[in-house]
Structures are given as C-alpha cells and as structure tokens.
Amino acid sequence: MRLEIEDLRFKYGSKPVLEGIEMQAMPGEITAIIGPNAAGKTTLLKCIAGLLKSEGKIMLNGREVKSFKKDEIKEYMSYLPQESFSHAVLTVFEAVLLGRLHSLSWRVSDDDLMLVSNILEDLEIDDLALRYLNELSGGQKQMVSIAQSLVREPKILLMDEPTSSLDLQHQLEVIDLIRDVTVERGITTLIALHDLNLAARYASRFVVMHNGSVYASGEPAFVLTSETVRHIYGVNSTVYIDGDGIPQITPKSSVRQRARRNRSR
Amino acid sequence: MKADELYRKITWRKYVLLLSFAVTCIITLIIDISTGPAQLPILEVFKAIISPGQSDPTTHVIVWIIRLPMALMAISVGASLAIAGAEMQTILDNPLASPYTLGVSSAAGFGAALALVLGVGIIPNAETFLIPLNAFFFSMLACLLIFFISKMKGVSTETMVLAGIALLFMFNSLLALLQYLASEDELQAVVFWLFGSLLKATWPKLGIATSVLLITTPLLLRDAWKLTALRLGDEKAKSLGINVERLRLKAFVWISVLAAAAVCFVGTIGFIGLVGPHIARMFVGEDQRFFLPMSAFAGAALLSAASIGSKVIIPGAIFPIGIVTSFIGVPFFLALILLKRRGFW
Hints:
Strand content of chain A: 25-35%
Shape of chain B: globular
Helix content of chain A: 25-40%
Number of strands of chain A: 12
Mean pLDDT of chain B: 88
Low-confidence stretches of chain B: none
Strand content of chain B: under 5%
Largest sheet of chain B: none
Largest sheet of chain A: 6 strands, mixed
CATH superfamily of the largest domain in chain A: P-loop containing nucleotide triphosphate hydrolases
Number of helices of chain A: 10
Mean pLDDT of chain A: 91
CATH class of the largest domain in chain A: Alpha Beta
CATH topology of chain B: ABC transporter involved in vitamin B12 uptake, BtuC
Distance between the termini of chain B: 28 Å
CATH architecture of chain B: Orthogonal Bundle
Largest interface: A-B, 42 and 31 residues
Number of strands of chain B: 0
CATH superfamily of chain B: ABC transporter involved in vitamin B12 uptake, BtuC
Oligomer: heterodimer
Radius of gyration of chain A: 19 Å
Structural class of chain B: mainly alpha
C-alpha cells in the first residue's frame, strides 16, 4: 500500500510537535525516518499508527485513513513502539501469539499457531518459545517484539528504533529480515533509526526530520550529505560512497564542541 | 519439536492443571462439610447430599441447613475474591493489588458499621439484608467515585491507585469515627464483622453471591485475550488496537461488583484475593483463559481449606475465618515461592 502524508500537524496541548509534514512511502521499500532526539520521529509514527490524533491527511493508496473502518486499519498496520518491556508472566510463544490479537478466539486456530511458529524460526528464536519474558535479555525481548509485529502480516509496518538494544550481528540480521519481508510481501515499512549508516544500507528512501518538520527526503545518496548531517545533528562529518554505492558517514566532531574550543582560545 | 507443537502440549498440561485444581476444590468442599463440632463420616455426607430423603434427620439438618451453605459460600467467596484480585493486579499492573486495593473493603466496613452502630440502612426495613446491603452500597459507591475520578483524569494505573488510596483513608477514618461513637456491644459486632466469617452464610445469600460470580466471570473471560495483551504494557496494547482505557474501566466495574458482592455477606477476608492469583500465575502463567479460572480454583480451595482449619483449631468452636486464611495461606504461599523458581510476577 502506498502511504502518502499531506500537511500533517500535531500538538501536545498548545505546543506544536509536528508541522506541515509531507512525505510518501512505497510498498516493498524501507523508508528510514532519521533525525536527532526530539525531532518528532516517534510522534510521526504514532500519528500514522492512529495512536495520536493529528490534523492533515494520511492516505493509503490514495484513500484517506479516516474513511477506513477501525478494524480494517488494525489489520493493515503494525506499530512497534520503542522498547516497552513488560514483566508479564507469559512465554515467548504466548507473547508473539498476541500479535495475532485481531484473529484470536478462545480456541487458537492452527493457522495462527503455524504463523507464530514460522516467525520464531525465521528470527531464530524458536528455542526460546517456552521461556518466560522476564527471563530474557534485552536483545531477546527486542526480537520477541519484532516477531510480534511481523506475525500480524501487516501491509504497513511502523517500527520505532527496532535495533536499539541489539548487538551488531543481531542488528544486521534483524534489519536484513525486515528488508526481506518488506520486499517479498510488498510491505510499506517505515523505520525510525538513529544509526545513519545502517539506515543508508537498508533504506530506499530517507525522511530527515528536524524540529517537527521534514528537512529533506529522497534517496539516501542525495539526502545524506555532510551538509545535512551538520545542519540536523550539529556534527561535522565526512560522507563517502562505499563499494556498493551506499553513502556512509564518519563523524568527526560536534559543531558545538568546536565552537566552544574556539571561544576558549 | 516445533514451537507450535510444544505450545499445544503446554496448553494440554494447563487444562490438566485446571482440572486437578477443580478436583482439589471438590475434595476440600467434602472435607469441609464433614468437619465440625459433630464430625460426620464422609460417606454419610455423600449420602445426605445425593439422596436427601434417605439420610438420618440430624445429619440432614447439619448438612443441608448449616454446613452446605457455609462450605459452598467458602468456595464461592474464595473464587470471587481471587478473580477480583487477579484482574485488579492485571489492570493496575501491580503484583501487590488485591480486590481491596482501591478501598472496597474499608467502604464495605463503613457501610456495615453504619448499620451495626447507628442502625442506619440504605434501604429501610431490609432486616437480615440490612448489613450486606449497606456494605455493598458503600463499596460500590467507592468504586463509582474512583471510576469518575479516573474518567476525568485519564485512566492510568497511577490515577486509579491514588484515587483508591485517598478513598481508603477516608472510609477508614469514617469507620474509626463510628467505632469511637459505638457502645461496647456494637463495637464488638463491628470488629467481628471486619474479621470476616462464614457463619453468616445462608442459602439466599449464597445464591446472590454465586449468581454475581457466574454472571461476571464470563464477562471478564470474554475479554481474556485483550486483558492478556494489557500485560504487555499500555503502549503495546494500544498498538495492537485495544482501547486500553475502556478495557480497564470495564474490567474495573466487574471486579468491583464481584468483590462487593463477596465482601458484603462474609466481611473482609484478606489474603485470598492477593495470593490466589499468584498461585495461579505460578502454575499457568498469565494467559487469562487459564489464569482467570485457575485463580478462581486456587482462591476457592484456599478459603475452603481455611474453613476446615477454622473448625479444627479449637475443637467444638469455630474461629473467624478471616484470621485463619493467613495462618493457612502464608506458609503454603512461602513454600511455593521457595520451591518454584520461575513464573512469578
């Protein structure tokens, strides 16, 4: 499903948090939402997921989200919040099964059980199936949350920092899997990420957020410049194109630090 | 073995555990009926229950008029308190919550004391139902106040707990005021009510308490999956499409009715509503399809066992059950904590 957003606005009380957001995301592609802390990435994802009431237009395949039935939207969208670990006495299998909430009845269908079983295997956490959530490490819990999101078989997948508590190997494996699923199933995937190099490697499109609005958007090679990084993050960096044609950045120094040093001289 | 097959196997094991706890309830019930100042052989008890016409008249009276309503009340109240506790812990996301957390017991105590001390009833001329009606009315009043405060301020666990604690203190001080004003006899009656006792059980009261249990439990079970998902945290539950605030308020209403109906007939019996759910959690986890009925069986078995205990501590006398529950429950609960290594909150 094609996702288009026009003039999206959101306020917490009287304080505007998002203003005039324009962006689009395509099926079969990962769109990375990047930007510094408090730029509005999480708020944007929550507005799209319908967890926050915003003004402006959010459209799926040209049709406004507001015109869909609530249940329909639930089936289309899956939102993975930033780390929100619970201490529920539930096994990994049960927790992932809850991702199928919209189709669960008293007797769990064989299809739902198979879906859970398969996703646990895909993420290579099937050996944890009967472990309780409170016995898992942070990274393992994160994998369970990701499984919970994917098992819903969404058309629009919204993920807020899905790799934040994973080690390097798991970060790559998880994003790899998310990309495969995105391409195979034609999902429109939006991921808020802090790691620019990881984002550049996997995303087809960047949406760069700054102070509640979109600073730039487009292909990573066009958007990820040292100028953008300096303006958005206040960081001096070198950006080079690697052997795969992917822009990679090496941060050098904080603009603030350098200014302070110059002042003290 | 594939994960889904393992899950199926575990699910079967949970059904077996449920069944064995149900059987335990039946066993404690039978022992409870046969225990008392006049010890009845278990076979006699069976005969009196199954064919009431053919049993010895004395046995018939003891079983049908005195012991059966009391023993069944223990089962019904134990189940109600444990279910209410289980759901209170779920919606407040707090392992220390019990049906009394939000002031249900102190409000009920105040209502009962109002009738016992001042003879003031919510419904005049209610006679035998004066005290329970008062207790029920005031506990529902406390719940309604929390309901509206939460609705106004947003239904977070913190708002509900804070509003509940405020009411708890208010009703406790009102109760203390009444105790201060009461004569010695009245004071004794109030204190005795607050202990909790099954001696007040009669068939009509049992009928009402059990009807409330049988009506509210399916209503809670209907939301079993949503309540399970609520344990993943508000944010996650919302992202799964659950209207968290509405679910929390809805469950709260059923818990309140359930707890108030149980408390109003037998007084405040502590511990069951706190520990019943914890025992259930250790055995079946928090999938509410199993957690809820398991809590009910655990609570019922505990209170039934406490009822037996209350009759054997001093032969010939019946101890207030509110005192016995903790004596029986605490060692059992501590043993479980020490023996089981996982499956806690």
